[in-house]
Amino acid sequence: MGESRRVAFDHSVPLSIAKYFRFQWEPAQNCHVLLYPEGMVKLPGSAGEIMKRVDGTKSLDGIVEALQSAFPEAPDLRADVVDFLEVAHGNGWIRPANAQ
Amino acid sequence: MGTAGSAPRTPSSPHWLNAELTYKCPLHCVFCYNPVDYAGYGPELTTEEWLRVLRQGRELGLVQLGLSGGEPLMRDDLEVIIAEAGRLGYYTNLITSGIGLTEKRIAAFKEGGLNHIQLSFQDSSREMNDWLSSTKTFELKKRAADLIQKYDYPMVFNCVMHRHNLDHTQQILEMAETLGAEFVELANTQFYAWAMENREQLMPTREQLQHAEAVTNAFRAKVGDKMKIYFVNPDYYESRPKACMNGWGSIFVNIAADGVVLPCHEARMLPGLSFPNVKDHDLRWIWYDSPGFNAYRGDGWMKEPCRTCPEKEKDFGGCRCQAFMLTGDPANADPVCDLSPHHELITEAVARAQAPQLPAGVKPIVFRDDRNSRSFADARGKLQKVE
């Protein structure tokens, strides 16, 4: 899974984890991971924190807001969140919540 | 072990567990990778033993679980095993022929948290005729494929390719499309176990491979994104070995039906190693401390040309079992590598396969069944007595 495939996504619609992927905290890796058939992507630190908030109800604004309130000391996170979500979208890990 | 080279590194935690739940199987595939002498093994693990192993596996960091066999549907406790795997947080993959799959069972699997199903197509010669003429087997597969889709699983179609079916690649892809396959893997036979016994019968010609790949490419162009098609060449046609298991004891654990724990499906064949059983040891000890799992970690065991090869971190010298089967020494380079002094063992086998007709007197095909397996087990028993 290359980290280079970035694909823009619709900032106004709620986002979900894509079908067939499963996201969970993995104690042995000490980070969040995304599991899919025959593979695993590690999402350490902020990547895991962003993905945790991709819950099928929040769009970009909601995700940024939830992160800012969880990490009030952090500077403006929006650009970083967009960066990561474009990579996640490009890799097929997330999709608009209403899409098949 | 060698005297020079680095010691085995401390291994990281494994993440893939393949559970060969049973060697019972309604099919008789001539390319089966189950050990040829399985009929001589001890009894299958009980339900309780599997559940205990699954719990130990999660503590060790295993996340991907393959449930295979034999035919895993032959175990009537599969529902219980899947439910425990789901509860423990595995991403669970069922690898099945679909024989024995009913709506009641798949509903229970879904409920238990099964994530993924791979439907395998057996097109060994015994089944090939009715399969290609789309009769009995096709109907069965269609039912399984319909259930898989009804329960919202991706439709993953796997077919093992070889000399006797490569020329049917077009029909196979059309069948996959008819079944609604989203992912198709046309994996050429790798020559281990039953496939090794049948190597001359199954080895394709170069022309067959090129044709099948061209057909696959044309089909890809036709179906576009609807179907993702993988075509895997036999390693005998490569000049560098595969990075087998991503390195010995690196990420993968295989547990055989009788509880023996192996770094790959085939490693039980290797000489001078004894692999532990989950009945006697826990997985953590087996992974980190057992001599079997440490035997080919790192590169201290390597011989030339691997030891000083700039690619040794990339392919780890290939496959230990293939090196043993073909050269007699598992520490040799996998002879698939054209830098191996034994590479001619590969090129000669490939050269012999180029004749369009199999030569008269070729060894008859050996089907994977209990009777044949008992003969292999008996022969091995006699050999061990002699030793």
Tags for this model:
heterodimer, A: 100 residues, alpha+beta, 3-stranded antiparallel sheet, two-stranded antiparallel ribbon, 3 helices, 32% helix, globular, B: 387 residues, alpha/beta, 9-stranded mixed sheet, disordered N terminus
| Topology of chain B as a string of helices (H) and strands (E) | EHEHEHEHHEHEHHHEEEHHHHHH
Q: Level of helix content of chain B?
A: 25-40%
Morphology of chain B: globular
End-to-end separation of chain B: 23 Å
Unreliable sequence segments of chain A: none
Please explain how this structure is put together.
Chain A is α+β, with helices and mostly antiparallel strands and 100 residues long. Helix content of chain A is 32%, strand content 22%. Chain A contains three helices and five strands. Chain A has a three-stranded antiparallel beta sheet. The longest helix of chain A has 13 residues, at 78-90. Chain A is globular, with a radius of gyration of 13 Å. The model of chain A has no long low-confidence stretch (mean pLDDT 91). With 387 residues, chain B is of the alpha/beta class. In chain B, strands 7-6-5-4-3-2-1-8-9 form a nine-stranded mixed beta sheet, covered by helices on one side. In chain B, helix 1 runs parallel beside helix 2 (78-88) and helix 2 packs parallel to helix 3 (103-112). Mean pLDDT of chain B is 91; it is low at 1-5. The A-B interface holds A 19-20, 22, 24, 26-29, 33, 35-40 and B 13, 15-16, 60-61, 63-64, 89, 91, 93, 115-116, 118, 154, 156.
